[in-house]
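Take a minute with the sequence and fold tokens given here and flag any structure token that looks odd. Thanks in advance.
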Amino acid sequence: MTTMPAGRTDSPDDATLEQTLGTTKKLWDAIVAHLDSLPNGLVREWKCYGKKHGWQMKVTDRKRAVLYLIPHDGSFLAALALNDKAVAALPSQKIPPRLVREIATGKTYPEGRPARVEVTSTSDLTVVKKLLGLKLSA
């Protein structure tokens, strides 16, 4: 799985994203539209964290990181951290049990437990939206 090259000095444009994401570009656009529809005043910003990691879209609510969207060839990773309250609410969200276990048993960091979803389908997108809702309400 490769990420967008870090050697670029400018953030990826729509054409580069489409070339990288392929058919999942419509899912990327759907999550971006969802973020824009939320009342939290979320801010999106492209970041490059070095050659190994490439470009990522960091979404913040001005106080904290909310979500990272990381383009890969033919998919993208949605990553966020959930606090204990959000983790406790996972079973009520109809999230795949494997992911619930992965999050609940994951290492706890100061910002929470990591939740990562490789988005390749609309069902993955639905899971990301549920996780995001938990993050923003907890």
The CA atoms of residues 89 and 134 lie 8 Å apart. The helical segments are 14-21, 25-37, 84-89, 97-104, 122-137. The mean pLDDT is 91.
